[in-house]
Design a protein that fits this description.
Elements lengths: L1 E7 L2 E6 L10 H8 L10 E6 L6 E6 L5 E2 L3 H13 L8 E5 L2 E7 L6 E7 L21 E5 L2 E9 L3 E6 L5 H12 L9 E9 L2 E8 L3 E3 L3 H13 L6 E6 L2 E7 L4 E6 L2 E7 L12
Parallel strand pairs: 2-3, 4-6, 11-12, 13-15
Antiparallel strand pairs: 1-2, 1-18, 3-4, 4-5, 6-7, 7-8, 8-17, 9-10, 10-11, 12-13, 13-14, 15-16, 16-17
Amino acid sequence: MKFSKYHALGNDYLVLDPKDASELPNQLDTVRICHRNFGLGSDGILYGPLASDTADFGLRIMNPDGSEAEKSGNGLRIFARYLYDIGKVGNDAFTVDTLGGVVTCKISDGATSITVDMGKVRFAMDHIPIDGPEQADHDIGQQLNINGTDYTVYLADIGNPHCVVPLVEISEKLACTDGAAIEVDPTFPNRTNVQFLKILDRNNIQIEIWERGAGYTLASGSSSSASAAVAHRIGLCDRAITVHMPGGKIAIEIGDDYAVRMTGPATRVADMDFDLEALDFSVKD
C-alpha cells in the first residue's frame, strides 16, 4: 500500500490516493498504519482525490483512532500540496469537498505557502451537539468543570467542533490532562477538539491543542481558525491574527461574517510503501 507523507508544522498526515487503493483501510487497519511504533506513524490519513459533484476534488479525512474527521486545516493544506506535487493543480484557486463543507485552496508560487478559505465560524450551540440547556445568548462563555477546575469555554464550529478555553497561562501538560478530559466530557456526545488560548497582543495568540481522535497535536489549522475567531469575537484581537503553536505559526484573516482565511506551509516528507505484514501486529490503545 503506497502512501505519501507530509507534515504541516509538525502535524503529519499520510496521503492515500484512490489510484493506489480502491477503498479506505478499515478502522483497525487505520489505527495500525498510523501507529508510530507498529506502522508508518501519522496524525491521520487523507484519502483522495475523489470525485465530487460540488467541488473540483473530494477528500475524506481519517483520524489515527480510525474515526472520520469532518475537516482539517492542516490536512487540507497537505492535500493541496499533494495535488500540486502530482500535477493535478497549479497556482489557480481550486475547491475541495469535505464532510465539513467545500473549501477553496490556493497555492503560492513555489508552493511555499497554501491559503485555504476555511468557511464561516459559527458560535451557536445548534451547530455543536451538546448535552445541557441552551442559552439565549450563545456568544457568552459556557461554564465547564473539569478535574475540579471551573473553566469558561467558548464553542465554535468551522465544519468541525471546537471548545476554546482562554487562560492567562497555558501548557502542553494542561492540554494533555484537562484537554483530554474536555474532549470526552459528557457535555459533548460527539466529542470535541480543544484549544487552550493565550492572548499575546491584538494580533497574536498562542494555543495548545488537544485534537479529537488524535490527542496532543503540535499544530492545527482548524484549531487556529476557531481560536482566532473566538479571540476576535470576544474583543481581545483584531481581524489579522498570527497563531503561535509548538510546531510553528499560521496566519488567520477574519472576515465580517467570520469567514476565515488560513495561510501556512505544508512540507513533503517521503513516499512510503506499507507492507501488509505489519497489519499482523496487535496494537494496544
